[in-house]
Design a protein that fits this description.
alpha+beta, 89 residues, 3 helices, 18% strand, 4-stranded mixed sheet
Length: 89
């Protein structure tokens, strides 16, 4: 049986303002997980660059950032179509 993280799809997604209020912590977590170029979309989604295959680091960042922000922080890598229209975090 696999274990699910505490954050589930039904959790409320963090807003742009909520993520931005914790930008320093999210940037620090990005560095801790060897991810780069943290950016934010207008809907609060964080976009990062990853040189690793898979999403282990990205998922870990999402989980830890959600703990800091207090709502689900959606994280995408910069190689997907949804990563456009961002600004530096």
């Amino acid at each position: 049986m696999s274990r699910m993280p505490n954050t589930v799809v039904a959790d409320r997604k963090a807003t742009f303002a909520e993520v931005l209020a914790h930008a320093d912590d999210v940037r620090r977590l990005t560095t801790v997980h060897n991810l780069g170029a943290p950016r934010i979309r207008g809907d609060g989604t964080v976009v990062v660059h990853s040189d690793e295959s898979g999403y282990r680091s990205v998922n870990r960042l999402s989980f830890e950032a959600s703990q800091v922000v207090g709502a689900y922080v959606h994280v995408l890598t910069d190689d997907v179509p949804g990563a456009a229209d961002t600004k530096p975090l």
